[in-house]
Amino acid sequence: LDSKPYMWGDINVSAFVDNLSKQGITDIKVEDSPTGGRIVHLTDDDILIQLEEGSTHIICDSDESLRTKIRDALVKCLNRL
Amino acid sequence: IVMKDNKLRLIDPSEAMKELGLPEHKIRFTSTLALENEGTVTQTIDKIFNLVKKRLKSASVQHSTDGSITISDSVLIKVSGDDEESEKDVLLSWSYQDEELGSYLQRLLKAGLHVDS
């Protein structure tokens, strides 16, 4: 199994939302999180993306194709080592 | 490999980013799926453990003291639910570095535990 590169940088939320839209995902709601980060909620599929400084957590019970679209939209916002 | 003060060193990528002043960004995925399995939560965990161990011969698969399963460095599997109910909730979590492993385990668990081969 190949391992993926390590990523660095900060997520620009509007660039991330733009990337999601380009993937055809448009049911996007962005909120502030209690911990000072942002929460991106994809309302139609009940997917939560928690953006914090230094980390992102994607909580997704949906199908694999949607998860990989979100992953790719996120990775485009970061630099790889 | 990092070169510093004209010396080459092999260090952990997270450590390398710190030394280079790059802010690491960790990506993690969590997915919960429903799994049909008669028997208790503990029996379900044991079945998953045996299946994963069988399929991933080269990976480090371990039982944690809290009943969860850890695989490689970043993959975590937890089972919850009612011992009397046949449907259990399986939480699977993995980091971007273990993306292929996480995705594989998701497919494996979605296929269910009835096919034990």
Structure commentary:
The complex is a heterodimer of chains A (81) and B (117). Chain A has helices at residues 13-22, 64-75, and strands spanning 7-8, 28-32, 38-42, 47-52, 55-59, 79-80. Chain A has 81 residues and is α+β, with helices and mostly antiparallel strands. In chain A, the strands form two sheets. A four-stranded antiparallel sheet of chain A has the order 2-3-4-5, covered by helices on one side. A two-stranded antiparallel ribbon of chain A has the order 1-6. In chain A, helix 1 crosses helix 2 (64-75). Chain B is α+β, with helices and mostly antiparallel strands. Chain B contains three helices and seven strands; from the N terminus they run E-E-H-E-H-E-E-E-E-H. Chain B has helices spanning 13-20, 41-55, 99-110, and strands at 2-4, 7-9, 24-36, 61-63, 69-71, 75-80, 87-95. A five-stranded antiparallel sheet of chain B has the order 3-7-6-5-4. The longest helix of chain B is centred in the middle third of the chain and has 15 residues, at 41-55. Chain B starts with a strand and ends in a 7-residue tail after the last helix. Classes of the chains: A alpha+beta (81), B alpha+beta (117). At the A-B interface, strand 1, strand 5 and helix 2 of A face helix 1, strand 3 and helix 3 of B. Strand 5 (55-59) of chain A pairs parallel with strand 3 (24-36) of chain B, so a sheet runs across the interface.
Can you give keywords for this protein?
heterodimer, A: 81 residues, alpha+beta, TATA-Binding Protein, 4-stranded antiparallel β-sheet, two-stranded antiparallel sheet, 6 strands, globular, B: 117 residues, Alpha-Beta Plaits, 3 helices
